[in-house]
Design brief:
Elements: H1 26-37, H2 47-60, H3 74-83, H4 98-117, H5 126-138, H6 143-146, H7 151-167, H8 171-177
InterPro entries: Gluconate_2DH_su3
Protein name: Gluconate 2-dehydrogenase subunit 3 family protein
Pfam family, one: Gluconate_2-dh3
Length: 214
Amino acid sequence: MDEKPFETPYPGYDVLAKWDGPSWNDATRRVVADRLENVPPRRFLGEAEYRLLRSVIETILPQPERSEAARIPVEAFVDAMLWNNEGSGTRYADAPPPREAWRRGLAAIAAEAERRHGRSFETLTAEERHALLAAIDAGETDPAAWEGLHPRRFFRHVLLKEAVKIYYAHPLAWNEIGFGGPAAPRGYVRLGPDMRDPWEAEEVRPPQALEGAP
């Protein structure tokens, strides 16, 4: 199954058009430029772990509308987070430290792919990858492969949450949701439901409904 290109409700919107306007100051411009230009090199994960993580990311956050050069490299920022031994500040009492949890979790996903299909996760079809991750989310896994790591918790509250957080911290993703960025020093004033400051992007069509949603 081919991934359908995402159609943003804000076609033509480019947050970088705010670059020289009153919305951003020099500090904001430095942060945005760093995020755009400085992709962290792989330093923590091994090559096989990194390839697997990228494949998982591409399954849950596909970017078929972007070229390789314009792709948001979520896996690179995950690797940088692990290299710097950074965390979210949350750790479950029965979970290993973040670095160990990521290594165990990725190894378990690889083991599940081999157990179910006899192939690596990266070589599975889109349907097979989605089904495998859905099974992990449902807890339908081989306990031995997870070495005491809670499958659903790792997938949903560690991997998925971190990937989405990193994705939407990237300026290219801001265009998809009409976000104007940090807006320092201007700030946002109209913060209530269905309220919009005049310098914010205006939606021209409702967001796409998820396939299968009511």
